[in-house]
Amino acid sequence: MPTDLGSTAVLADGEVVLVRPLRPQDTAAVLALHDGLDERDRYLRFFGTPAGLDKICERIAGEPGPSHGAVGAFRQDQLVGCAHFEVSGDPTEAEVALAVDGRVQAHGVGTLLLEHLASAARAQGIRRFTGEVLAENTRMVRVFADLGLPYRMTPGGPERQFVLVLEPGENYWSALAERERVADVASLRSVLRPESVAVIGASRHPGSIGHAVLENLIEGGYPGKLFAVNPHATEISGVPCAPSVPDLPEVPELAVVCVPAPAAAEAVEQCGRRGVRAAVVITAGLTGTEYGERAVTAARTYGMRLVGPNCIGVASPGASLNATFLPGVVPAGPVGVVSQSGGFGIALLESLRQLGIGLSSLVSTGDKYDVSGNDLLLWWQRDPHTEIAVLYLESFGNPRKFGRLARTLARSKPVLAIRTGETEIAQRAAASHTAAAATPAVTRDALYEQAGVIAVDTISELVETVATLSWQPLPQGNRVAVISNAGGAGVLAADACARHGLTLPDIRDETRSALHALLPEQASLHNPVDTTAGVGADLFGACLDAVLADPGIDAVLAATVPTALGDPMATVPERARRSAKPVLAVRLGQLGHVEPLTDERGPATASFTDPADAAAALGHVARYARWRATPAGPVEELSGIDPSHAVALVQSYLAAGHRWLAPLEVAELLRCFGLPLAETRYVTDEDGAAAVFQELKRPLALKADVEGMLHKSAGGGVALDVTEESAVRDVVRGWRRKFGAAWHGAVLQPMAEPGRELLVGINSDEVFGPLVVFGLGGTDTDLVADRAARLAPLSGTDADRLLGGLRSSAKLFETIDRGVVRDVLLRVSRLAELVPEVAELDLNPLVVNDARCVVLDARIRIEPRSAADPFLRRLRT
């Protein structure tokens, strides 16, 4: 069951409720809920008038255990709904029942309770909910249908029996995501589209934050009702002022808190008691103190959305809301921004403002008690004012949900993020090759890549990419033509394109013929095209038209310098605006690293001072376009796997205190997922080794099983090409003497046929989940370090991208079968997904030859894992 404190979640109308397990002390509240049901609802719940209602409620609120669980939804301490299950016979099946206060039945309380109850039941091994429902109870039937889980209901008769299957699939995840989006957007309207705002700590002093926030709201033309709270004033800047929150003439929808930490906590509590829907806490100094705990408790208790603390505020320029202390006007535009760093928000706004690019929304999350990047990803999905999303995240509260939400948004709108170095993942000692490869940055980048997020390293790079996306279409591919009236600029641009994953194909013969008719003899008609400095603007424009018409070109970089004959760049804006292919400009010597290239209608494209910057921006955009054009693909079904046996094995190993599994334990677990392990025998002495020698095909490979020795070759624990029984005995005898008490035994295998040695592994984190690592194996593992990584579960598309993610991929799969390696990746991914206790796994080497592959060596480390549901609807507070 969830923790006693429970978690807050948002209903369909945007109201926040607390969902937590019920216990015996909640019996009176459960009885009050059922007593408050009207006659019709009581009839539908109990099929009549219940006998012994007090005993029923006592059982509902009973102590949670393997055969019973219950959750309740509380609105400001009042129980408005409860759901519970009872296991009677089959431990994988439980009877479920639900009761919801009639006043909130249309708000999604029942569905939310079933989501939480089903998640808790799955964690206890329950796979089905059963029960009976009256045929006339259409509302309950609709709850089952809307939930998204498979269900069956008996036809005919007044009483219908139902079975609800608790195994979530894509239908459930999609339905859950849509419910979360609807609810989250409804609650965030109080943050970004409030009808009234109160500034707590407003001041007449120009140097104070409270003064800056109030003035920004006034100067931004906020159209709603505006209040100020200050015990020493009755009016500030024409805004009526109350001495405290309880004294406000009416309840504001949004409160902006700008008072010191002790007073801030009290202000949030007062807002909650007064019924304020959301609070933006600009105040710093709450985190790590009792004041922060008080603010969180108030938000949880009273159902408020909370932004901050320690933030610069929120802005929604399209709604004329500027509840920040940012300098100057926040212009309206297409870019939505969420940032944990106030400094980043200020710098980004200033850079975009200089380009004439405005914001659709800005949320500074600060210490991120509640509202986070995930909330804004939901808001932006259907926000018509947002065309580009920008993220600055220093940590991931729920990275697996982030990945799903970002991927959904990126399918229709570009999502950009600044890489911020180390994430919250603890850096562990590299006990295996996979762990060494799975650094925090690798995990973060895998998350971004799979979600289609454009990840950049600097604000300049971010702004350049936003400018490109704002003013130019997405390319159909990565084939770029460079055209320049300065040969050196063209060469620099061509080199930069190659560095950023863009190709420069030769232009078609018909295009070359058109250019030949336009240009002097000394011009270069190959890509990059050098028109020479002796062409004027009109002639350069005609050449640009010819290159854009080439069907083998997806985008064009036009790099120019002005000459006495004119400025060739003058012809670029018109063509950039009308072209279906992106056209970026490079003007050597311009002052800004990126500027709008304008015509009479405004910005037509982005102009860069450095060809490398233009190529970097175009490379980002081309990779995003390719990701967006590739279907995500489902998680593919696999034959020959037995996850139930695998889970039972791992639980037994954990119960025995095992962490690094013994060779036979590794083999048994791998076989549960159909992984191609080489024929393996295990012995503990010379006689056992000699007996196995007679049974296996020779020559043999021997590997020592020694306590604490993870890298056998480096530790002298490998013997290859052993062909004589006496040699087998000598090797095992020598190992027993050498390793002494640390010796456990030896693994014997037939020598594998030579082939390409690869590495496939898992490195799992409790927050991010499992990372699947793929790369060159054997001796190449450390020498070459050519690896790629993706987060599990892998779809077929993910597996294909992983296979193509090595520097050596193109050459690698010229000689080996791609399909057999892909199958191993998908099976390892399924193991990682279904057995989360696998913390590390190394298949190294995985030897591939012809159309088959075999695992020659494997290591697995297991750890106890809590069964947290990353997709459950709940807020951070």
Written description of the protein model:
The chain is α/β, with parallel strands linked by helices. Among the domains are: 7-167, Gcn5-related N-acetyltransferase (GNAT) (Aminopeptidase, 3-Layer(aba) Sandwich); 188-394, 3-Layer(aba) Sandwich (Rossmann fold), CATH 3.40.50.720; 467-629, Rossmann fold (3-Layer(aba) Sandwich), CATH 3.40.50. The protein is built from 28 helices and 38 strands. The protein has an 8-stranded mixed beta sheet, sandwiched between helices. Helix 4 (109-123) links the parallel strand 5 (93-100) and strand 6. The chain is flat.
Fraction of residues in β-strands: 15-25%
Number of helices: 28
CATH topology assignment of the domain at 188-394: Rossmann fold
CATH superfamily of the domain at 188-394: NAD(P)-binding Rossmann-like Domain
Class inferred from helices and paired strands: alpha/beta
Helix content: 25-40%
Cα separation of the termini: 18 Å
Q: At CATH's second level, what is the architecture of the domain at 188-394?
A: 3-Layer(aba) Sandwich
- Radius of gyration over all CA atoms, rounded: 32 Å
The order of strands across the largest sheet is 1-2-3-4-5-6-8-7
**Average pLDDT figure:** 92
Q: What's the story with the biggest beta sheet?
A: 8 strands, mixed
Low-pLDDT stretches are 422-430
Number of strands: 38
Basic shape: flat
